[in-house]
## 1
Amino acid sequence: MSHESLRIGVDLGGTKIEAVALDLAGDVLGRRRVATPAHDYDAILRAIAALVHELELETGRRGTVGIGTPGAVSTRTGLVKNSNTTGLNGKPLVEDLSKALQRSVRVENDANCFALSEAVDGAGAGVKTVFGVILGTGVGGGIVVDGKPIAGRNRVAGEWGHNPLPWMKPDEYPGRPCYCGHDGCVETFLSGPALAFDYKSRSGQDLDGAQIAALADRGDAVALETLAAYQERLARALAGVVNLLDPDVIVLGGGVSNIARIYDGLGKMVEQRAFTDALDTKILPNVHGDSGGVRGAAWLWGAGEATIS
């Protein structure tokens, strides 16, 4: 097998494991996907090893391997923590995958992988600081500076979803309970389920974000009202990010980011809340869509690091 440089990224999600092989230009040379055996840790290890092996056979190359997954690797124990794929929690994922694949493996939070993908060759390409936003089942975030993801001392950098919603209004306070144990977290206002909950509280109907957006496009008053409230809350939350991090670009990902209406005037709304006279930060939709996480996992190995001995 050739030792040409190759980057393999694996997106380890709760329902699927996707793997992609990239060349050094970022072109996709191969892609595989299987269902996640979510409650069987050993089966997860075998599935990842098989995907990597298949991609290496297909390309005729041996590559570096990066893994993106919900949660993080604890700096204290070296074990996975905070993953909603609960079978990973408390497990030495890095150590076990390194043994299974017989090479060093890098594991990073999936939101950081998303941000890295968009920073390398997506909506945040060519700038110094990118904040990647996940507006999906939960609310997450990742920080990339000079092309490198910032995990933080406790591996929780970018977790804006578990800060309180800024400038909370009387009818919002104290907010709904969050699974993290606190009330009023950004996630409880800006996740996909939170958007659906708000619409149901106004209309009595159970609809998802795409359905709400379609109704809004047809002029439905309740849908328009719901999305306007969502956008205003998003602006408040992003203003807090700007005040703390002041990124060059904010890239939105996750299912809610596909609702075009939330971008209209969003920058001006953030500018009104942020501690600045003018907002130069661009707020953009992602370029790579659902492939962002797996591409970012591949990019965990930087330039000059993708040659395997």
## 2
Amino acid sequence: MLKIPDPIKLSVLSWNIDGLDERYIEIRTLWICNIINKELPDIVMLQEVIDESSWIIRSYCQQNYEYVAGLKTSYYYNAILYKKDNNLKVDKIFEWTEFDTSEMDRQLLSQEITFHNQVFTIITTHLESLKENSLERKEQLQECFSKMLNKRENHCVIFGGDLNLREAELQELGGIPDKIKDSWIDSGMAKDRKFTWDLKLNDNLKFGDNFKPTARYDRIYFRSPKNKILECYHFDFVGTERIDASVYKLFPSDHFGVLSRYRLDDVPF
């Protein structure tokens, strides 16, 4: 009887860690490191990293992770962490791309890895912020989708970050391209795991007592390789509790981290 290979399982965390908020930046970053080291995802994609938080992350996660940061054209940038695992190998130097027309120094960070003999391309970014920058944000997202689709057919591609995306903007682009899936949708669209930026639950930011917006800014998209099926079977948040309600009264970030788990199977014949 032909033996069916066991699926490859991969866990990915994407988190805007809010390095632009100077309040208790060291304590908040240490708390984020504690969560990373507790959950131990295979891949961690971070946005809004600054030099101070970068140093803390390198120091407190170095036992479990290799660390790659994008080139600096601004005092905040993206980073990717890879769990130290005999089954995970970083294949080549990272690729770094600056969005040409960004007014906020936004960039895209990409890295190829091999995990259990399967090639993965990991992509993270922080797209242009604010409602008035919708056109620039849509162009940046199109560039990211194109990068996903242009990767070799044998690559698994996982792309995530703080996309600042509004649903109407995605529809204006024609929706998610064929062959690309949204992890939250693929995992079942749990209503309590929809809004990653939620001022009703997370009050690090305040816009007034009666204005508490919610948004699904943080997303993870993926593309299956040829003759295989990648699916997101688990989607959850981290950073949903205050770091110390009695002293600091802050959450680790104004964004919740998105922790997703995937399985990769051969296409059944």
